[in-house]
User: Fold this.
Amino acid sequence: MTAIPVVYAGSFDPVTNGHIDIARRAREVFGNVVVLLIANGNKRSLFSEDERFALLQQTFKDEPGIRVDRACGLLTDYLKERGLRVLVRGVRGPEDVAHEMTNAHYNKKFFPLAETVLLPCRAEYAFLSSSAVREAFGYGADVSDLVPPCVAEALAKKRGG
Assistant:
């Protein structure tokens, strides 16, 4: 089977175990995944873009078939510039599906060759999100079991420990 490179894009602030699971499962289906850090100006970030990129690189450094990249601007521009057309999105429930269907519509509008594949999350990640991790961390909770070790270490440093 020929590998189809797919793009799994997000702001990854921070990358969670749920993100890792989606990237790995996408790799199992398609063969190659680009985990793409893309700027989202609508979100208040815990980590800078450079920190998030470094954490993604650490997270996936020993993962064959998974490559980390970064971009700004329209996701469809990234796809066109690199000759890619398949996006993978993880979904936790109906709200995510509705949101991703809207995104898929606009991605298709701006790049008619773009296709979006939705991967339902595993049950253990159904309520895991970067925003939930950020909020819990902000209140002093230990979120180390929700994120990869490199993120847990970076969070501890942010907390001063």
Q: What stands out?
A: Strands lie at 4-10, 31-38, 66-71, 86-91, 115-120. The first helix runs from residue 17 to 30. Residues 111 and 155 are 37 Å apart (CA to CA). The radius of gyration is 15 Å.
